[in-house]
Amino acid sequence: KFTRDEIRRSMLLYAISDRTWLKEGESLADVCRRVLDSGATFLQIREKDLEPGRFAQEAEELRQLCQRRNVPFVVNDSVEIALSCGSDGVHVGQSDLRGRDIRALIGPDRILGISAGTVAEAKAAQEAGADYIGVGAVFGTSTKKDARNLTVEALRDIVRAVSIPVVAIGGINAGNIAQLKGSNVDGVAVISAIFGAEDPGAATSQLLALAKDMVAAH
Ligand code: TZP
Ligand code: MG
Question: For binding 4-amino-2-methyl-5-(diphosphooxymethyl)pyrimidine, which residues are annotated in this chain's numbering (predicted)?
């Protein structure tokens, strides 16, 4: 179990797996190991097109990698897989099961992350028992086609409206992360700028340094 403080600090560089970026001969666990060893502070497995058996298997591998490093690990969408692999929790969007129902299923000790795009959604997520919210898309992204764009001001309004940690998501990369200075977010969640990088480990170290610089400027 992670404390509230640990969860907040773990938002700094929140990596989200995406196997569609894997290069020939690489496994998801190989790349995630490099990403974790390069300083990612949180890991979510998000695999939209994997059959449940494979998804569970990969989740189990990543759970072990994270547990050895004391890095929080959550599963996107599937409460069932989140529980069966012994993960630290689950992350869900607005259209998935209701937050309150998920909290009841996972119990008080596991992490519940909920995506939110507005102040109202953020407050509702906190009310439903979320431990943190993911807010975005802050920049344009091709990873999630239906994502909206948010301004830094909108982000700041959302952060102000809740007491739980907030991680920004959507199109964030080394070139634009500094634009989040002053948004008061606790960190950044990143898919393609890590998993789509030529060298995911190097991209992770670079983003970690920039994320520290970004939150230090709030
Ligand atoms: N939710 C809002 S934007 C997004 C998700 C899952 C995609 C983020 O991916 P990337 O590649 O970091 O833009
Ligand atoms: Mg979802």
Answer: 44-48, 76, 115, 144
Residue 121: enclosing H or E segment and its boundaries?
helix 119-127
Distance (Å, rounded) from C-alpha 4 to C-alpha 176?
28
Pocket test for ligand 1, best of 191, 192, 204, 207 (most atoms within 8 A of CB): 191
**176 annotated to bind ligand:** no
Express each pLDDT in 92-132 by its tens digit.
998 776 888 999 999 999 999 999 999 999 999 999 999 99
**CA–CA separation, 172 and 153 (whole Å):** 16
* pLDDT tens, residue by residue, 176-213: 999 999 999 999 999 999 999 999 999 999 999 999 99
Q: Please name which of 210, 191, 212 lies closest in space to residue 31, comparing C-alpha atoms.
A: 191
- Please tell me the number of the ligand nearest to residue 79's CA: 2
Q: What residue's CA is closest to ligand 1, atom 6?
A: 144
Q: Which helix (H) or strand (E) holds 59?
A: helix 52-69
The response to whether 24 counts as a known ligand-binding position is: no
ipTM: 0.97
Please choose from 75, 169, 188, 207 the residue to mutate so as to test ligand 1's pocket, defined by most ligand atoms within 8 A of CB.
Answer: 169
